[in-house]
Design a protein that fits this description.
The structure holds 2 protein chains of 2 kinds. By secondary structure, chain A is mostly helical. Helices cover 61% and strands 7% of the residues of chain A. Chain A has helices at residues 10-22, 29-42, 50-73, 75-83, 90-103, 109-115, 140-147, 149-156, 162-171, 187-206, and strands spanning 5-9, 45-49, 120-121, 185-186. In chain A, 34% of the residues are buried. Chain B has a 6-stranded parallel β-sheet, sandwiched between helices. By secondary structure, chain B is α/β, with parallel strands linked by helices. Chain B has helices at 16-29, 45-61, 66-75, 110-121, 128-144, 163-171, 183-197, 202-206, 226-238, 250-254, 265-269, 273-286, and strands at residues 3-7, 35-39, 101-104, 152-156, 174-179, 215-219. Chain B starts with a strand and ends with a helix. The chains are: A mainly alpha, B alpha/beta. Chain A binds chain B through residues 37, 41, 134-142, 145-146, 171-173, 205-206, 208-209, and chain B through 183, 186, 190, 200-203, 206, 225-227, 229-230, 233-234, 236-238.
Chain lengths: 209, 289
């Protein structure tokens, strides 16, 4: 078989369909998710061109980065949402996601990325007071499954500390790649890594005989 | 015809028997219903909770139990009423009367008896698959005749999916699936949902609108921590889940010691009474009992 193609099956296949449909600007998040699930359930495996796959992955990363950057610009409003006692107002998430998606229009993407320089969060010194952050302030998997990837990025943007993001992922058994579990990191990368890990967990749960 | 309510989960230790007994108590006392609990679990926990150990031993000796009933049905037409123990449980209504709860007690022999049943239907070189289907049908017919005896027939299923549990799941109008909010429960709930809805894949279950599914999940042993809340929310994304949650309370655990002295529900369940009342209110609003 040619080296410029790759066979996809299982979670990789599911992820491919999610990314493929999510990359279509004509589809809303819910429709893209629905189509992805339906197609993935009908197809056992497929062979895709490496070049196309890489482009799709780059596009997905870019889209998330732009959604995250757009979400960063929503910070004041989102801070108010985060301050609410019960974060179960998921409609707020959907609204924020829609806004983030609107900001992530293809034309606006490069500007948004350039306008949002990567924040870097050094780890606090050992003597820092213990954080009062609640790592269960919202459910990573439920938000992703109910509202999609963009909405999760928006909710993650409510959390402005790398330590809190890591604590949240750890508490909810979302395992991040070893190289980003500690040390300084820009928040956009960290949030995207959390989203990827959530996607992988959900894909694993969807696998069936 | 009574309403068949199965309480089932492939996973053990999720509170199937305690939920079965709570529902029997609630519907009999607060709902004034005639309730029959059929103990399909060889561990016989719900039987022990409802009649205590000595009475349960007596039920074994006198062949008033599920294994004897199913076994006798292989060879004759003994009526189910001969195997049922009436007016069980150690509770009383607020008027001081025993509630109308009957029990078809569980039996430690129930698993062996299921093997016997398979072998009975495998005679004359009947293919195994065919024998298994006949066995499941035997269970279904045996349980179905309980319908006219009560307003509500609660089928307390064993963990795993035996032929008896499979028959109960097919027969039930509604299945309550208790679960603990932990990561493996997600798998267990997915699997039982596929079996209840007769589907081979979770995706096919998801295609059925939640309100049209025959099962409802019930979170049990819930601690007031974020991890449990998120896990319940995760399961509720995919599965119809009751809003009432059963907390991890000492009063709830203690309510399942049987005593000769009868108590009211409030006395027996203590601080857990309000939760139980909420569960009853939610289910009585959903189930046509």
């Amino acid at each position: 078989m040619s080296n410029d193609t790759k066979k996809l099956a299982g979670p990789a296949k599911d992820r491919f369909f999610r990314r493929l449909f999510a990359s279509d600007p004509a589809l809303d998040i819910a429709t893209a998710d629905r189509l992805a699930v339906r197609t993935a359930s009908l197809v056992t495996s497929l062979r895709v061109r490496q070049a196309g796959l890489s482009a799709l992955e780059k596009e997905a990363t870019l889209r998330r980065a732009s959604a995250a950057s757009a979400a960063e610009t929503l910070e004041p409003g989102l801070t108010q949402v985060a301050a609410l006692p019960e974060p179960k107002a998921t409609d707020t998430v959907a609204g924020a996601a829609a806004e983030a998606a609107a900001r992530a229009e293809p034309g606006a993407t490069p500007t948004a990325i350039e306008a949002a320089p990567a924040e870097t969060q050094p780890s606090p010194p050992a003597s820092a007071p213990p954080s009062t952050f609640d790592p269960f302030v919202f459910g990573l998997v439920p938000v992703f499954k109910r509202h999609g990837a963009d909405a999760l990025i928006v909710r993650l943007a409510e959390i402005a500390s790398a330590d809190d993001l890591r604590a949240m992922a750890k508490a909810q058994q979302i395992v991040l790649p070893r190289e980003i579990r500690t040390g300084p990191i820009d928040l956009v990368t960290l949030r995207t890594a959390i989203l990827d890990a959530v996607e992988k967990r959900v894909a694993d749960r969807k696998a069936s005989l | 015809m009574g309403y068949f309510l199965a309480v089932a989960n492939r996973k053990g230790g999720v509170g199937k028997s305690t939920v079965s007994v709570m529902l029997a108590h609630a519907f009999a006392v607060w709902g004034g219903k005639r309730v029959l609990l059929v103990d399909l679990d060889a561990q016989s926990n719900s039987s022990l909770i409802l009649i205590g150990n000595a009475n349960w031993i007596e039920a074994q000796k006198s062949s008033r139990n599920i294994a004897a009933y199913i076994e006798d049905k292989m060879y004759g037409q003994n009526p189910i009423t001969d195997y049922i123990v009436r007016q069980v449980s150690d509770i009383e209504t607020d008027a001081g009367k025993p509630p109308a709860i009957s029990l078809l007690p569980g039996s430690l022999r129930f698993e062996d008896m299921q093997d016997e049943l398979i072998s009975f239907y495998s005679r004359n070189s009947t293919p195994f698959r065919q024998a298994k289907n006949k066995c499941a049908d035997h269970f279904r017919r045996a349980l179905q005749v309980a319908g006219p005896l009560a307003d509500l027939v609660i089928l307390d299923c064993a963990p795993g999916i035996s032929n008896a549990t499979a028959a109960a799941l097919r027969l039930a109008d509604t299945v309550i699936v208790p679960f603990r909010p932990d990561s493996v429960s997600e798998f267990a709930v997915d699997k039982i949902a596929e079996i209840v809805e007769g589907k081979l894949r979770k995706d096919e279950v998801m295609d059925i609108p939640p309100e049209k599914r025959r099962y409802r999940c019930l979170a049990n042993y819930v601690r007031p921590v974020g991890a449990d809340r998120v896990m319940i929310e995760t399961i509720a994304v995919d599965h119809p889940t009751l809003t009432t949650q059963l907390p991890m309370l000492p009063d709830l655990a203690n309510a399942f010691f049987w005593s000769e002295e009868r108590q009211t529900l409030a006395e027996k369940y203590g601080a857990a009474t309000d939760t139980m009342r909420a569960l009853y209110a939610e289910l009585s609003g959903v189930l046509p009992v």
